[in-house]
């Protein structure tokens, strides 16, 4: 999914098409699929850097060295 498709609302139609395609392929050849297909549901909240947002909130505070002399 491209950002442009997401912003213009085309993502839902594309996800529905992909879901239908995979369901049809699974019906035609069930032995090919050992598990379920992907979750093709739309994710409503998307983050650009989700890992960065989590680590930013949990980052340790900077340790100040009392022996360090400021110049």
UniProtKB/TrEMBL annotation:
Region of interest (Disordered), residue spans: 22-41, 47-71
Regions of compositional bias (Polar residues) in chain numbering: 31-41, 55-64
Name the UniProt record assigns to this protein: Transposase
């Amino acid at each position: 999914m491209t950002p442009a498709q997401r912003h213009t609302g085309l993502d839902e139609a594309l996800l529905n098409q992909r879901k239908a395609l995979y369901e049809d392929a699974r019906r035609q050849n069930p032995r090919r699929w050992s598990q379920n297909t992907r979750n093709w549901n739309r994710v409503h909240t998307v983050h650009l850097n989700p890992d960065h947002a989590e680590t930013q909130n949990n980052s340790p505070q900077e340790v100040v060295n009392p022996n360090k002399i400021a110049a």
